[in-house]
Write a structure and sequence with these properties.
The protein is an alpha+beta fold and 420 residues long. It contains 8 helices and 19 strands. A hairpin with a 2-residue loop joins β9 and β10. α4 packs across α5. Bound molecules: 2-acetamido-2-deoxy-beta-D-glucopyranose (5 copies). InterPro entries: LysM (IPR018392), LysM_dom_sf (IPR036779).
Length: 420
Amino acid sequence: MQLAAAALLLLLTSISPSPPLAAAKSTIEPCSNSATCPALVGYTLYTDLKVSEVASLFSVDPISLLLANSIDISLPDVENHILPSQLFLKVPVACACVDGIRKSAAVTYKTRPADTLASISAAVYAGIVSPDQIRDANPNADLSDPSVIAVGTPLAVPLPCTCFNNSDNNLPAVYMSYVVKDVDTLSGIAARYVTTVSDLMNVNALSTAEIKDGDILAIPLSACASNLPKYSSDYGLVVPNGSYAITAGHCVQCSCGPGSRTLYCQPAPLAVSCSSMQCRYSNLMIGNITAQPSSGGCNLTSCSYNGFVNGSIGSTLSTYLQPRCPGPQQFPTLIAPPTSLPDSYFAPAPSPSEAGGIPSTNPKSVVPSTGVAFGLPPAGGPAGSASGTSNARSLMDRVTAFPVALVLGLVAEFVLSTPL
Ligand SMILES: *[C@@H]1O[C@H](CO)[C@@H](O)[C@H](O)[C@H]1NC(C)=O
Ligand SMILES: *[C@@H]1O[C@H](CO)[C@@H](O)[C@H](O)[C@H]1NC(C)=O
Ligand SMILES: *[C@@H]1O[C@H](CO)[C@@H](O)[C@H](O)[C@H]1NC(C)=O
Ligand SMILES: *[C@@H]1O[C@H](CO)[C@@H](O)[C@H](O)[C@H]1NC(C)=O
Ligand SMILES: *[C@@H]1O[C@H](CO)[C@@H](O)[C@H](O)[C@H]1NC(C)=O
């Protein structure tokens, strides 16, 4: 009886139409160089999961995952903490360049009993990747019947990600791929992530502020950039405002904000053996700053982190004069590992004070016309911003629309150049 019910369920799930992905849009970034860049994927847990389980879904380090969400890592056994279903997390991913498009290259998923391509897409990865994208990324896996996948099949999961040179309006930024929910509005998202509607439209090459359930947006989060030497293994480290990153073999943690755009690194509170974090010719440790009021202002001496090179932690001692002595270093608030959803979770309506309006001085306030959608970078915006689609039909619309626009342009030019 139970077996029959299970078989029926299997049958029903296999013949029921796949989720309405047909009209979902996704922002893609063309790329040419092979360097990876830091990005985030916004993820909503489909069930209660351990920290380590979420981390393994995205092939990331659990400590990085926790710190990206400002969750305290100093508690014992924090990796086995169970996070509640529907919790939203920012997952740090290395954004690679695959076949000319930015996506994650390093994420693999081992299939479990009852997995189907549709369930892996919609449930496990919460809509961030479509069944077709998973299929296309695994040409050698037997996915001929997407409802029957051998248990333990390793599947590459090409998560959408963008970097746009890790800048937005010429300021450091980290981009988060975000699956739009039906309750979302562009202004709500802009307010929640301290950006503007026009910036979101520019970045995603949207011609209107309309967004749909299942669309995937790139959301720029303001960030602090590092200035580490090219030869260090963590060159290019960028940390979003309000969060932490761990580096140098779990020895150093760096944070951004709330009050400053300067990346601040200090020894991490983990019990791991680390090479010396003391600056040479000084008794200062990485993160130590001494301030001495002097006649010319404030004489600051700081020992700062300078990259992880060949397994050793680089540090730099510098002395400089500033008009005024700085206040104490501020840190993003660390939270305890969540055990339940925050009260206001289902209505992330921002307070009016933080509602992101459209400042008239915003250099990106020009709303892109549909013509921009084909890949002209918005003025002053991230280069190479382009709107793609996760399905063939609307991609075809774009492709066919392009020559039409070209022809219209030629006609216009012809008319203009015709002597009267
Ligand atoms: C990328 O950003 C850096 C500064 O963050 C800038 O110097 C460089 O010109 C930018 N490159 C492109 C291609 O926009
Ligand atoms: C950084 O985050 C803090 C809250 O943690 C917020 O008040 C501030 O506006 C943010 N700054 C930027 C530049 O986004
Ligand atoms: C220097 O940094 C270490 C490690 O973060 C800290 O324990 C110590 O209190 C700091 N010393 C001063 C003088 O700030
Ligand atoms: C600033 O402090 C450093 C070390 O304490 C000292 O060597 C330097 O002379 C000072 N500079 C000024 C302008 O006071
Ligand atoms: C790192 O080590 C390799 C050999 O072990 C050496 O060739 C290289 O110069 C080192 N890099 C730096 C920046 O010290």
